[in-house]
Amino acid sequence: MNPDIPLPSQKYRSALVSGRKVLRFTFAPDAEARATIAQALDLLELPEFSFKGELVPQGRADVLLRADLAALVVQSCSITLAPVRSKLSDHVEVRFDHDYVEPSAEDWEIPADDTEALPETIDVAAIGIEALALALPLYPRARGVEFSEVAFAAPGVEPIKSEDLKPFAGLAALADRLKKPEDPEV
């Protein structure tokens, strides 16, 4: 994600939610905002994007964000650079704790849920854009395209193949030679 590109935001004060009613939201950026998001995420196009959900009070001061992401993205094929369209959907849950304590390095474990400190404002657009970035295919491929091996070498030199670079590739041949005694020279 390019940090130099100013992204759209949609903020809600946490005080409006904590200990009160559920606050429903929809982040559905217009074409200009989607183009900005596409540029920040290095997408060719972002024709559709919505992040709909709710901020739910949990106890007296904590807040739970539950939302569904839906997007249509166009990325470059990782092999041919041809445009690849992908339909994405994901469910996001983030718990904001008022009394959140950052775990020490010794106590740190991967938490079962996504928990963060309760900020003064919750930016649902930033959370939605982050969820979109995490949902993107890492290596999109155009239909029918497969990765194949390409080998280059100077004229008269046999190119190295990926099989030759495997550390145990020659062990089978070596084992066969050790099993068969060589013919004595006469």
Could you characterize what this model shows?
This protein is an alpha+beta fold and 186 residues long. The protein has a domain at 11-135. The longest helix is centred in the C-terminal third of the chain and has 12 residues, at 124-135. Helix content is 17%, strand content 31%.
How much is the average pLDDT? 84
The helix/strand order is EEHEEEEEHH
As a whole number of angstroms, the C-alpha radius of gyration is: 26 Å
Got a strand count? 7
Percent of residues in β-strands: 25-35%
- Looking at the chains present, what oligomeric state does this protein adopt? single chain
The end-to-end distance, rounded to whole angstroms, is: 71 Å
Question: Would you tell me the structural class of the helices and strands?
Answer: alpha+beta
Looking at the structure, what is the overall shape? elongated
Q: Please bin the fraction of helical residues.
A: 10-25%
Uncertain segments: none
Q: How many strands, what sense, and barrel or not for the largest sheet?
A: 5 strands, mixed
- The count of helical stretches stands at 3
Strand order of the largest sheet: 2-3-4-5-6
